[in-house]
Amino acid sequence: MKLSTAQFTALEQELDSVKQQVQQQLGDADARYIRRVLLVQRLSALSGRILLVLGFITPWLWLAGVLLLALAKILDNMEIGHNVLHGQYDWMNDPVLHSKRYEWDIACDAGSWQRTHNFEHHTYTNIIGKDRDFGYGLLRLSNDFRWRLRNLWQGGTYLLLSMLFQWGVSYHELAAQRVFAGKKKADRHSQVSDSELKKAFFGKGARQLIKDYLFFPLIAGPMWLWVLCGNLLANLIRNLWTSTVIFCGHFTKEVYAFNAAQCEGESRGQWYYRQMLGSSNFTGPTWLHILTGHLSCQIEHHLFPDIPARHYPAMAKQVQAIATKYAIPYNSGSFVRQYSTVFLRIMRYSLPGGGKAVKGL
Amino acid sequence: MLGNQSSLTLYFLPLLQRLWPGFLPGQYRARLVGKQWQTADMLQLSFQVSGRWPGFLPGQHLLITLQHQGRYISRPFSICSPFSLWQSHRQIQLCCKINSAGEFTPLLQQLQNGTVVNISAAQGDFCRQQPTLPTLFVAAGSGITPIASMLLSQRHWLAPVTLYYRCRGSENAALLSELTQLAARQPLFSLMLSDSRTEPAETLQQQLLTDSNDKQFYLCGPAAFMQQIRTALLSSAVKPAQIQQEQFGLAMPLATGHSNDATPLTASFIRAGISTQVTLNPQQSLLQNAEQHGLAPRFGCRMGVCFQCVCDKVSGQVRDLRSGALSGHGAEQIQLCVSQPVTELVIKL
To answer: What interface predicted TM-score (ipTM) does this complex get?
Structure first.
């Protein structure tokens, strides 16, 4: 470890105080903000679905409908769903915006997401073998994984995963628990049984399919094909966008991975340190931050997953200053730059060899 | 299904709240039409309630929900007005003890006439069951509110009724003038004031015991006071079935057993999939414990009434703060606000 125990303690205190400052001022402004986002989401979903049907007047209306519906699905997925399911707005005691109640407009059941993402990924971020989000068990992203023949075409696998991202997310826990295929791992314990996992997977998946590809096309009458294609396209746009944002958060060029031994018995300061090394930010205007659910500030999100995300850009300035003070790498850059390094990483490790992402801490 | 929320109303809530600010599903609108201080700290609020509100039985309470600094908070208050006021004018009155250091009641004090708040349906089973039997009512402090509603709603008096009203002098006795008027015009009703500053509780107990033959008892007041009266009544010939009671506030019994050991109690709260290990203060409810560690469980009345803070206990034992009853050790649902930790716990928030 580069830092001494005393430095880790100091780092912990400094980051805790950044968090506390924000926690103390949570109130009306946050409630107003998230309710406004929710209102915009509802209005764009409704107007998008209506415009899809009005495509018979001119296809441009249909196109506007697709884009509005995609916007609604992106807002629901990122700034609202992801953040609400993290418990960022639990303090509001709201009937809708609570981690225990919210269900989002994607194929993945909210409960399953909370177990795999909030628990596994956020606790064991980028620990090879523990955080299955590092490559999703499909992609070889560093030489910490043995090269296999299937990695040769992982560029195509990546494209497919991005296009079907909501289904990948939905299947994630079932794959980890080897519900349908593979040998059970002795060290994996789950709070829920395989049959419950299957029920949630098929139940939520079926509801989403029926809604977008049966119900709404049916009520559109003669415009059914337009509506069906519009829904398909809106889901595709959302999938590509969320996948891109999330890949930029952990798989950029300079990102660190870890092995389980490095993280054994770590202090909170060390956990903070690892979260900073294992995540990466990208910069952009406010609207871009909102469309990413502020996951453009992935580092701050990993340090403070339960702080309402609209505070991340302001916190980022403080966190970056702290990183500079302790000489901790702070991985940030433009969206284009960060994404190109992600893409190059996927392509590079489709071939054998390459460098390891697990480095000496 | 269409909106992914449990109901379409919840899906459209952001739009509905634009059209009707303050709208909350499952709640009823009530407009404040009057505020009057009953005593130095008891504020009587009069509400014009929505025509959809299903009504109440005298003795019942309701939850008021307000939005404060972005959060919805609710507290229970007993209705103190007669049934006839609701029947004829669709109005109810609540008597609220204002605690200036508290979070909720100062907001009530600031409410302007004409403000619309959300109220729940009336709830609770502290109601007069057999009006034909001779009855003793015992009220202490703000415990007078549900009892006043029962007495003022009574139309046909068939049996003698006595109210023992314990308070810090008549200047601190809320609703006293209404009750005095009732005593003056109704020969079967007598009102006995018991001044807690000059008269020990034992005197009141003695009066009750000498008067206890074949009577029904209705008790309402602070938890400790009621426990004392109840114990005294039961130790004489009164049967538990003769006593109805409603508790205001929670008494925190001293933790016993495991928690007296040197090792502190811990609990794992699993919230949004992440488990947080916290050290528990056995003198506080699990809700307070969880909140102090930055977790934000859903909550409502904070006294076991509204069931909003119900969550799954995976393992461990808790004590019910109202009854003192111990839970089992296995998985079950508990109310965080009235559960005191007894052993190590695992709880899903």
So the answer is: 0.89
